[in-house]
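It would be a great kindness if you could assist me with a short task in structural biology. The matter concerns a single protein, recorded as an amino acid sequence and a row of C-alpha cells. The record follows directly beneath this note:
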Amino acid sequence: MGIRGNNSLRLIQYWLTPLEPSAKKVRVSLHIPRTTRSESFSYIGREGHGSLHIALSVLVLGLSVGVIFGPSGNTQAGLSTPLAATMAAAMATSEDAAPVQSGKKSLNITVAITENGRANDRDTAKDNHLQTAAVLEAPKEPILASVPPVVAPDPEKKRNLKVRSGDTLMSIMLSAGIRRNDAHDAVSALRAVYDPRNLRVGQRISLTLSNDGLQEMRLDPSAIRQIAVRRDNNNATSFRAFEVQRTLTRRVKFAEGVITSSLYKAAVSRKVPLSVLAEIIRIYSWDVDFQREIQSGDQFEVAYERFVDDEGTVVRHGEVIYTRLNLSGAEKPLYRFESRPGIVDYFDNKGRSAKRPLLRTPIDGARLSSRFGKRRHPVLGYTKMHRGVDFAAATGTPIYAAGDGVISYRGRKGGYGKYIRIRHAGGFNTAYAHMSRFKKKVNLGTRVRQGQVIGYVGTTGRSTGPHLHYEILAGGRQVNPLMVKMPSGIKLGKKSFARFMAKRANIDALVADLQKETLISQR
C-alpha cells in the first residue's frame, strides 16, 4: 500500500485499540494557512500526508468513533456528539485560544476520555492547549401531523333587483350574472305558477347566488301572494316553483298633526304613507283648494288601514276610514261608508256626500300657475280676460275627466292647441286645452267616467310652457272652477242614513281610542 497507506491503517488501529483504565488523550491539530496554498493536516505529531488520504482517514475515523461510542453502542460513550460537531465548536473559539505560530493559525483539540466515558476537566485544563466550550445539541424539531384543510362551504350572496321599464325576467337574471341555462330553466319552472309577462315596473325580485349558480329566486306578484323558484336538491340541474298565500292581519293606524306650510309636509312628518296622503287629497278635491285654502295652523286627522303579516311587517296600506280637516276653524270630517253593495263613498257628519259632479282640480301634483280673471297675456302681451285656471305640470302628466259625461269635442282648436270638451249632467261642460296628446280610445262621442284619463299635459297652441288650461262652463258660460258651487253627489235614503249614523258612531269611538293610545305612546 505504501507508506501513506500504512500510516492510515495505523491511525485506525490506534482508535480501535481498547482504552486503558487510565485516561487517554487524543490530540488533533488543524492548520489553516492564510494563503491559498494547499491545505495540510497533522495528527499525533505526524505531518506530510496527502490531502486526499488525510480526508479519507478523517472520514473513516469519524465513522468509527460514531459506531463505537455512539448512543446506541454497548461501549461507554466517550463523545456525546459527532466528531464533526465537536470540531466545529472548537473552531468557533479558535481565535481566542489557539496561538499563532509561523504565520499559521493552529487549532488544538484535546479530548480526555476517562474510565466512565466523561472528559477529565482537570487534565484538560492542565494540558492548557485549549479550553473548549460545551457543544450544544441541535434542538429537536416538532413533528407535525398532516391534517387535510377544512374546506368552508361557498357563501351565498343575495341580490335585490327592481324591475325597470323594458326589463324581462330573463334579461334581469342575465344582467345579474346568472348562467343562461340556469336562467332559462328557472323561468321555465316559474311558468307553472306565474306568467313572467305579468312582471310590473317597480316590482322587486330577490336572487340567492352561490359559486354553483342560481339557488333561489323570489318575487311577490301581490301583497298576499309570494312565489319562489328553488334549485332541486335531488337534481342540481333543475328548478322547482313554489307558491305561498300569505295571511294578513288588518289593523287601523291613526295620525294627526298641525299644518305649518303644507299638508304634504305635515303628513310626512307624522309618517303618513304617500298612498294615504294621495287618497286624502282625492277625497277633498271636490271641495277644497289645497293651494289657496290651506293656512298655517290648520290641522288634520286620519285613520287608515294597514295590513301586516305573521311577523308583524307592514305589507300594504288599505283604505282611509276617517279623515278630518280643520281649515281656519271650519271642521270638515269625512267617513267611509258603503251605501249599497259595491258602492263606497265618503260622507260628512250629516250624511252629505263629499263627491261632487265635477272635480275642481282634474290633475295630480300640479301647481296653480294662473287664476281666473283679467291678466296680461304672456304671449299676446296685453290684458285679457283669462276664463279658466292654469295648472303647471310636467309634459305627459295625466289629465282626468272632471266628471261623468260624453266627449263633445276632440281635436285642435286655435290658440287652445289640442283640446277636449266634455258634456255633463245639469248643464255643465268642462274644457281641457294645450294637451300634448289624447288618450287612446277617447274619441268624439265616447262616454267617460269621473277620474278617467283623457289626455296628457303639453304646450300646444298659444303656450309658453307645459300646463293644463281648465275651464268649467255653466249654461254655456265660463265660470271660476275654484269658486263655483257644486251640488252634492249621492243622497242617502232613510234606511241608508240610519246605517250611516251607526257606522259613524263606531268610527268615532274607534278614533277616540286611537287618540288615547297615541297620546300615551308620545309621553
Q: What stands out?
A: The longest strand covers residues 314-327. The first helix runs from residue 3 to 16. Residues 1-5, 19-49, 72-136 have pLDDT under 50 and may be disordered.
